[in-house]
Amino acid sequence: MNTIKLHDLYFKPFISKEEIARIVKSLAKQVKEDLPKDEIPFFVGILNGCFLFAADFIREFNGNCEVSFVKLASYEGTTSTANVKQLVGINEDLTGRTVIILEDIVDTGATLQEIYNIFRDKKVKQLKVATLFFKPEVFKKELPIAYIGKSIEDKFIVGYGLDYDGLGRNKAAIYQLTAPPKMKNIVLFGPPGAGKGTQATLLKEKYDLVHISTGDVFRYNIKNKTELGVLAKTYMDDGNLVPDEVTINMLKAEVEKNANANGFIFDGFPRTESQAIALDAFLAEKGAKINGMVALEVSEDLLVQRLLERGKTSGRTDDTDEEKIRNRFNEYNTKTAILKEFYQEQGTYYGVNGVGSIEDITDSLSAVFDTL
Length: 372
Ligand code: AMP
Prior knowledge:
By secondary structure, this protein is an alpha/beta fold. The chain folds into two domains: about 5-180, Rossmann fold, CATH 3.40.50.2020; about 185-370, Rossmann fold (3-Layer(aba) Sandwich), CATH 3.40.50.300. It has twelve helices and 15 strands. The chain has helices at about 15-35, 50-60, 110-120, 195-205, 215-225, 225-235, 245-255, 275-285, 300-315, 320-335, 340-345, 360-370; strands at about 5, 10-15, 40-45, 65-75, 80-90, 100-105, 125-135, 145-150, 155-160, 175-180, 185-190, 210-215, 265, 290-295, 350-355. It has a six-stranded mixed β-sheet, sandwiched between helices. A hairpin with a 2-residue loop joins strand 1 and strand 2 (about 10-15). Helix 9 packs across helix 10. The protein binds adenosine monophosphate (AMP). Adenosine monophosphate binds next to helix 5 and helix 6.
């Protein structure tokens, strides 16, 4: 399971859906066992948070029952407020009935207090509370809770009906508030020859990041005649992109090799939308993300000249032939350039002028890196 982000906050996996299912089943069993034979309980779910718990609990309850809901609101953001409002009440006649409240979570007890108030004058036979989660550290009331699924520490949780500011209710598991990821991950972006490699080498020292250049990894594999190298060469020689699946798996392996990194500078990756999607998902598994795509903006004509110049000394066969260079730009323009929009939509695209001295460009890039 992955860390998730809701609004501005991060939540880590806490209670699996399997464990929840076990708890719910056992609660339903206990409730049934304590009821006199043939007694038809009246379950009252407390909305909104209880809707998944109530649905699962009722299905696990082995016997006839009636079901209704009240809607209360007590939370604002992640801090419990003592302010409980009843938004939808109970209309049924509950005289002489055994009423069992289904709550997703009891923390300070403010909501529970309101529930006891609501049912005080309903002439019920008995009122019992079944809560899926309970926070003993913060519970301030003297009110009885007949059934507790699981006691948890006082940390904000979401999922399985519980929300943070509206989001998270549809997660099957429970997640707990956690610190934001510390890694700094940057995509250094730009067309072939924009200077990504040169700048990444300088910036990785300055920011103590690991530099992963997929082009370099491919060239290393070609030099060492690995299976991956032999495969990649057929594409690279013509200036075509290596297939996504191969590249994505290779990138993941490179990241895994550096488990303790403070973060990464990705250079030459992602180059397609599906690579970008795969990278987001892969980092999310680690509770991390791309902090920014920093792009070196340089016009194509200037770059062809630069690459031909570089080809005289770089030893790169894809730098010496103008037709191959043009094809690399074609690949860039048709498959890669759209990633600008992909990151713009996430609000993480930063364009930097890539024309000028190496030092000036490093300074411009650093100015962006410092804000990420
Ligand atoms: P570079 O050193 O980044 O200019 O990459 C040189 C060549 O390696 C490219 O023209 C592609 O053939 C291949 N390559 C590097 N990175 C990728 C990638 N992310 N996806 C597909 N092919 C790549």
